[in-house]
Amino acid sequence: MSQELQRAESTPVAPKPPGKLRTFLDSDIVHSWKNQPVVIVATLVTLIMFAAALFAPWIAPQNPFDPRQLELIDAFTPPLTTSDFTGNFYLLGSDSQGRDVFSAILYGSRISLLVGFAAVIFALALGTALGLMAGFRGGWRDALIMRIADVQLTFPSILMALLIFGVIRGFLPRSMHAEVAIIVLIIAIGLSDWVQYARAVRGATMVEKNKEYVQAARVIGLPARKLLFQHILPNVMRPVLVIGTIGLALAIIAEATLSFLGVGMPATQPSLGTLIRVGQDYMFSGEWWILLFPGVALLMLALSVNLLGDWLRDILNPKLR
To answer: What domains appear along the chain, each with residue ranges and CATH number?
Structure first.
């Protein structure tokens, strides 16, 4: 019995395999993230701005979309000032309607992020579907889709978004323009940005469909639909997700540009671009904060998301590692 105990004690115990969390923390992605201070700051800024926009109804001292909460008597209150009339404290000042600029930025960020995310998802889904069809089927489908993409690439995306936005609004009655502005913005930006996703997916699909695992799946009689969505699609999504991350910053800027030009969100539901357009009218009259703070918020949001997208593109590209 003692010999068996000694033998059991001397038998080496296999080490416990690391969990998924430990494996992720030891991965190259986390290691690269820890060694790049710029990426860390960009991540923190992005998370803070996303959280602030998400919880805006609980953080903002005022609902800028509710006319009952606006204090016209507090108009043009400077930043870090308490109003002499109502006693309200304005961290970033107020605008011409007595609207708290800090609250307007939080609510405006929600609209900018909503339009950006929805437009990227729409463009990603459309571009991925067309790219899969063009790369897998080939023939006249590939030629038609790619020629349309080539024609669209000859125009700047913002001009395409303006054109699509104007055409869609032309078919709608004027009374509905403000109600469906956010939907029209999403469609316009999405239709102007699908080309980059389609081209990336088409190229990756043309490579994947000639690999041995696809040929083996064809030999055993796997339907084309299952072959596309179960085997090829998961292997071509990596570059698409990277493009989508960078495309989010571009979609936010596109929404802000359209709103700044006066063809985006109305003044009653301001996005960051609308706030910048409104603040431009007071740039030389002394109320500088109405333009400055929304502009800084848009710059920080777009820059941080863009930096994360650039880092993600580099870390997921084996040729750059």
So the answer is: 50-320 (1.10.3720.10)
